[in-house]
Design brief:
Chain lengths: ~270, ~425
């Protein structure tokens, strides 16, 4: 049931992505709304899949690569729906929904089963939840940043084509990017502090822990993007660029750490 | 009863003639009253905008009804009805219904898909409803359906999307940078007609404050007063520039009004937030080099025209979808409207049956005087139930026959068989 519901959610996210790309090419009033509806359907199926996981394994999907990726995808898809409904920025889904679909696909490929790492009860759960929220927020900041850069270029170069029509306004993307960065930064900071507390602060062995390395790197990326947004001039542009570059760095760093530290059953 | 529309529009008459037909709101009520009191027109709605003057009517005789409308139109311009044959058009029944639906959806507008017409149709309908007996069941339903179809065309197709004029393209561009324009500040260079139209568009989008700068200060003051804005002299724009988000320039100056040097004097390090400059003047007012600045988005009239042409092309491409919504609406309305024809026959049939039932029940009860009130009531209920059951099927069949085009024959047969045309029916029955 867990896998079937995840597969169904993957199909829904993929269909919504296709519909959003059709909306980009064809001017349509209804298609983005239909896409949001399909993402919401996928979200419900996804939630059902995670509930089934929790029932099967008797724990929340917060341990192991597959479950964490699935939880992260749920937050990203949820963010896409929330933005579409609350601020009429459904087109943000054109970046967020495929990322959610990729994360679900990766979760299915790596296996939806708990990892072997030790857990620390409530504080451990809170640490993982906060960190996952941080990574989801970074994904949203990446989506908003990427769309900002593309829309900025269209407006500067006077290209009034599909991107100009379909993408949200610059200031809206800037506001979403800024809010996501601050939310993610706060969540990840708290998540890292909790993680350090749970793991035992000051443990010299923790210095080489890939979890910690990746977490600190992401925290630095957030800090860098927020710094880039500060000051005069092209603050929005700098913030958007930093969000995109930062996201890419975080993903590559993960892949690098995974090759270096694979095995051992940890989620990395 | 027939439905018809008689009128003139931008498709048939030039503006000089259209403006002579145009009717003010107070006058429209009088016109509708005059038309509906003669007996030739049963219901009427007068739609008068700058692009059309049209009379929608429900009439017992379409020939005399439309003739009355033509006479009224001819009176407006002191002409004979025959003199207006080339500019006055007429649509009847389904044609009239489809025409109104197209009008309400903006498909017959000068600028395809313009939204204002929907409000004007609503206003015309409501204004005619204020006239006693001017709007009955047919036009009530017709206009309500038209507003529904117009709404669907706007929400389900892209026929109203995108800018359709240079000022609205300017607003669209600004919104692509700022999102909502509510609370933004604008600087308008020039106090001509284009400046005013653009200022009107910006104010309607919620631009908080506008500053009007013009070489002739008095004209700037006049324009600013009309739009609750502030006026400044043209040489004072250096102080205004750092405080605004949008600059619209439309002066008739033969030279650059906003040079790069002046821009840098006003904003030494460049703007620290996005600044949208729209130069709709010819020759241009704004130095193109300013567009190279980091936070500056500079557009000229050709850029705006490109947006307008593109969106008009897209609107045109949506026409087939919009037309299919019109056809759907016409079918839906017509299937309801056709049933109006059957209502008098059904009413007469039921009245006749009820009269027969009542007479027979009274006759029987006179003979059965020993029955108590409960038994008398039971006989009344029984006969009423029998009558309803017997009439149910013919009622349904008559409605169906009207719906599939065999209405007249079936209704005539029913009236003949039950001698309904000889029936003296009134409400007391």
């Amino acid at each position: 049931m867990t896998v079937s519901l995840h597969l169904a959610a993957l199909v829904a996210y993929s269909a919504a992505t296709a519909l959003l790309f059709v909306s980009l090419v064809r001017t349509s009033v209804r298609l983005p709304d239909y896409a949001t509806g399909i993402v919401a359907l996928g979200l419900a199926l996804h939630l059902g899949g995670l509930a089934s996981y929790a029932t099967d394994f008797g724990e929340l999907p917060l341990q192991g690569l597959g479950p964490v990726l699935s939880s992260l995808a749920l937050l990203i898809a949820g963010g896409s729906v929330v933005f579409a409904v609350l601020s009429r920025t459904g087109p943000l889904g054109i970046v967020l929904t495929p990322v959610a679909a990729l994360a679900v696909a990766a979760a299915l490929l790596t296996g939806l089963r708990p990892g072997d790492e030790a857990t620390g009860g409530f504080w451990f759960v809170l640490h993982v939840v906060l960190s996952t929220v941080g990574y989801a927020a970074l994904t949203v900041a990446f989506a908003a940043g990427l769309m900002y850069l593309l829309q900025f270029r269209q407006l500067k170069d006077k290209h009034f084509g599909a991107v100009f029509r379909f993408f949200p306004p610059l200031q809206t993307l800037d506001r979403i990017g800024g809010t996501s960065l601050w939310t993610g930064f706060a969540a990840l900071s708290a998540g890292l502090l909790l993680g350090a507390t749970v793991a035992g602060a000051g443990d010299p062995a923790a210095v080489g822990n890939p979890h910690l390395l990746w977490g600190v790197l992401t925290w630095l990326v957030f800090g860098g993007a927020l710094l880039a947004r500060a000051g005069r001039g092209r603050a929005g542009f700098r913030g958007a660029l930093a969000s995109v570059v930062g996201f890419v760095i975080v993903v590559f760093a993960y892949l690098l750490l995974r090759t270096q530290f694979s095995g051992g059953g940890v989620f990395l | 009863m027939s439905l018809a529309v008689v009128g003139v529009s931008h498709r048939t008459a030039p503006v000089e003639l259209r403006e002579r037909f145009a009717v003010a709101r107070g006058e429209a009520d009088r016109a509708v009253r005059a038309l509906t009191t003669g007996g030739r027109v049963a219901e009427a709605v007068l739609l008068s905008t700058c692009n059309r003057t049209e009379l929608y009517m429900s009439t017992p005789d379409v020939r005399t009804g439309t003739a009355a409308a033509r006479e009224w139109l001819a009176d407006r311009v002191d002409a004979l009805p025959a003199d207006l044959d080339e500019v006055v058009y007429e649509r009847r029944d389904r044609g009239a219904v489809g025409h109104l639906f197209r009008v309400a959806g903006g498909l017959d507008s000068m600028v395809l898909g313009e939204a204002q017409i929907q409000g004007q149709v609503r206003e015309a309908y409501e204004s005619s409803r204020d006239v006693p007996d001017a709007v009955g069941p047919a036009l009530n339903r017709l206009f309500q359906t038209a507003l529904g179809v117009g709404g669907r065309i706007r929400s389900e197709t892209a026929v109203g999307l995108g800018a359709a004029s240079v000022p609205s393209a300017a607003v669209d561009l600004s919104k692509k940078i700022f999102g909502s324009l509510k609370g933004r500040r604008a600087l308008i260079l020039g106090a001509g007609e284009m400046s005013e139209v653009t200022l009107e568009c910006l104010r309607s989008e919620g631009v908080r404050a506008a500053v009007v700068a013009n070489r002739t200060y008095e004209r700037a003051v006049e324009l600013a007063a009309r739009w609750d804005s502030e006026a400044i002299r043209l040489d004072a724009i250096d102080e205004a520039l750092p405080t605004v988000d949008i600059v619209i320039s439309s002066t008739s100056a033969p030279h650059l009004v906003l040079t790069a040097e002046r821009f840098h004097r006003a904003l030494r390090d460049g703007p620290d937030r996005p600044l949208c400059i729209i130069d709709i003047a010819i020759p241009r007012d704004v130095d193109p080099a300013i567009g190279e600045e980091t936070n500056v988005f500079l557009y000229n009239v050709d850029d705006l025209r490109q947006i307008v042409d593109d969106s008009l092309g897209r609107r045109q491409a949506e026409m087939p979808r919009a037309e299919s919504l019109v056809s759907e609406g016409v079918e839906e309305f017509w299937s309801w409207y056709s049933t109006l024809e059957v209502v008098p026959t059904i009413r007469d049939l039921r009245l006749r049956a009820e009269r027969v039932r009542r007479e027979e029940v009274e006759r029987v009860l006179r003979r059965l005087r020993h029955l108590g009130p409960d038994d008398r009531e039971a006989i009344d209920v029984l006969t009423r139930a029998l009558m309803n059951k017997v009439l149910h099927s013919p009622t349904v069949r008559m409605r169906e026959a009207v719906g599939n085009g065999r209405g007249t024959a079936v209704l005539d047969t029913v009236r003949y068989l039950f001698e309904l045309d000889h029936e003296e029916v009134n409400d007391e029955d």
